[in-house]
Amino acid sequence: MKKLIYIFAILSAALFATNVRADVLFQDSFEQGFAPGWHGRFDVFTVTTSNAHTGQYSATTNGMWHWLAHDLGAAQSNTTFECWFYDAGANNEEHMIGVSTSDPCCGSQSILWIGLEAYFDRYRYMYGRGWTEISTEIPRTIGWHKATFYTDGTTAQLFIDDQLIAVEGFQAGWRYIVIWENSKIEEPHTPNFWDDVKVYTDLPVPAMKQSWGHLKTLYR
After folding, report:
1. Which residue has the higher pLDDT, 204 or 149?
2. What band does 102 get if pLDDT is binned at 50, 70 and 90?
3. DSSP code of 33?
4. 3-state class of 217 per DSSP?
């Protein structure tokens, strides 16, 4: 059954690779500060001109632990969440992008996430189910990278730079999107940056470059 789900995920993305984005539910490029709807620790998060994926501004932190979240108002289906994050190549980076069915103020164990946990793996990107941390086969490289989550309401597909890394039932019908910095390495950390947040009702585009090699971690 598990293999059938993976096969369906790959075929569905291939068949609908030419889909055009439909309704945009939320987006923020941080050019006007934080868009309305974010909640969390604005004493930790700010906008900056020091590093941006597009435009002049991105979101960053003061190197300390905490999170910002946005409530989409209802459990999602046929929805994609994209967010760009910056990898500085440092050994003390701990930043993530995630989704959750409950407000992350209730605890990070409820979050399905993609990002960097350098204390755990300094060489590869990671994803996790709450506190369960899993290394991908995608090596870290300095620069901007895209994290993508797609849900059909039953399963969630996770991508880094358009490469499928996981298919999960955990937190599949997510309602909240999250950016946050973790706290397992001595603070303050190397500054983290997030940019070009988008949530839209459609499959991810462009076509995802899936391969069975990138799904190897799913059989652990």
Report:
1. 149
2. confident
3. B
4. helix
Q: Are 156 and 174 in contact (CB under 8 A)?
A: yes
Residues 112-137, mean pLDDT to the nearest whole number: 85
Strand blocks (E) in the chain:
24-28, 38-40, 45-48, 58-61, 66-71, 79-87, 95-100, 111-115, 124-129, 132-139, 143-151, 156-160, 163-168, 176-181, 193-200
Q: CA angle at residue 32 from 31 to 38, to 5 degrees?
A: 100
- Predicted confidence band at 64 (pLDDT cuts at 50, 70, 90)? low
Strand segments (E) across 41-140: 45-48, 58-61, 66-71, 79-87, 95-100, 111-115, 124-129, 132-139
Residues 6+ apart with CB under 8 A from 106: none
Contact 103, 172 (CB under 8 A): no
> pTM for this one?
0.81
